[in-house]
Known about the structure:
Elements: H1 13-20, E1 32-41, E2 44-54, E3 59-63, H2 70-77, E4 85-91, E5 97-98, H3 101-106, E6 109-112, H4 124-131, H5 140-155, H6 172-184, E7 193-197, H7 205-220, E8 224-228, H8 232-238, E9 241-246, E10 249-255, H9 261-268, E11 291-294, E12 300-302, E13 306-310, H10 317-327, H11 332-336, E14 340-343, H12 347-350, H13 358-363, H14 367-370, E15 371-372, E16 375-376, H15 378-392, H16 408-420, E17 426-430, H17 438-453, E18 457-461, H18 465-468, E19 473-478, E20 481-487, H19 493-501
Parallel strand pairs: 3-8, 3-9, 6-7, 7-8, 13-18, 13-19, 14-17, 17-18
Antiparallel strand pairs: 1-2, 1-4, 4-5, 9-10, 11-12, 15-16, 19-20
Helix pairs in contact: 4-5, 5-6
Amino acid sequence: MPRLSSRTRIKGDAELQQATGAGVSAPDAPLVALTDARVHFGAVRALDGVSLTISPGECLGLIGHNGAGKSTAVNVINGGLTPTGGQVRYLLADGRDGSGLADAQACGIRSVFQELSLCPNLTVLESLRVIHRDLTGIGWRKVAQGRIAKALAEIFPGHQIEPGMTVGELTLAERQMVEIAAGFSDGRMPARLVILDEPTSSLDAAIARQLLSHINTFCAKGGAVIFISHMLGEVFDVATRIDVMKDGRIIASKPTSEFTQQGLIDAMGHVAAEKSAARAPGSAKTELGEEILKTPEGLSARKGEIVGLAGLAGHGQAEALARFYMSRSGKLGQVKQPEVAFVAGDRGRDGVMPIWSILRNLTLTHLPSLTNRGLVDRDGERRLAADWRSRIGIRTDNMDNLILSLSGGNQQKVLFARALASSAPIVVMDDPMRGVDVGTKQEAYQLIRNEAAGGRSFLWYSTETEEVCQCDRVFVFRNGRISAELTGDNINEENILAASFEMQGVGT
Length: 508
């Protein structure tokens, strides 16, 4: 698909009126225009003077480190958050311009957030009804089934999701697929602008490619997308323009063709380069120790080894990790001297305590070591939290704030710190980098290597090939079984994909 040139930013209301005057709908008129938008939460400047537009046919890649202001910006764009200053205007379907939540909805803006919002006790059909308020009266189920089935088939051909399935029965990847399909589905007001916040964070490479293809098709037909992702390769695949955010501001904005990947990383302002920290499997490693775990599925790991679990999402990797973790935790002795620590990928369900502070969430598993005669060493707890806040870059000015005050990526950092700060000799990681920015990923990779060099072992499931290739050994799953065991130079995308689609071994 040819790259589209970016539209000149609209600086004032008069210029916006010229572009979106009543009854006039120029082909390149912006669907949404933010002008000097500001959002302040007390002393915190979540948005600090953001101006941007997005027009039909554009896919805007919005990138930046966790806490840069991306989520705040999209909440202003979709009308969910009223800016403290500046303005946001919408081009309505009849050519008039408007503002406010009602006009945002009338403009056809849909949002799919990284923090999945489906209710686990509802069916897929019922979940769509929550979003599409026109699904009422006799026969609404048939209409809803047609809408969601059509969207799923168009975006994810070959999926196994039935409209009558309960959300709680779905895997994390399937839930994400349902939310994405709902965002693009037919409705009383067709989707004109779809905001996708880390939409592939729980999807394997094959399903992610299906979504990227659909985005290109949707924009080619005149739709618009705001695409937020830390997976820079995907941003380059779909974005026509890239805006880089830092500290609540847009610090760079230009057509995708004018960026290089390294230039984009430099613009984000992080010293870590995406590829520079990558290593060949097995490099810079001391000799591994004795075997310390073996599971009925055939998973095994030695002391100091980083073991990856790969394959298409939903083929038994997460279940294998859960069975192993439960077999090594829960007893009284294992609480005081943990044998295994866990980093959840589905943090909303398995990770964060939503009504607790950042500090309490981080130190939760360390309370036995911080307790003496039933009393918690509060000073020691704060030192531990402050140390890991600094080491892993948790963006907050107060560790006593609620965990939900953090962005999704920063919540994930808290869970990661919780596990690595423990004394457990084995760490189980279920897609732990979900929603974490590229710079923090490199720092986390280095932390994992350092811990492994010290004798700690890792079981690491990831939907990202780059992460799997950080491992010393990789088990590829297919249909709930291990289809291949890869080591050394055989750990590469080609062999992982071959083993994911065929029940056969790949040379090791």
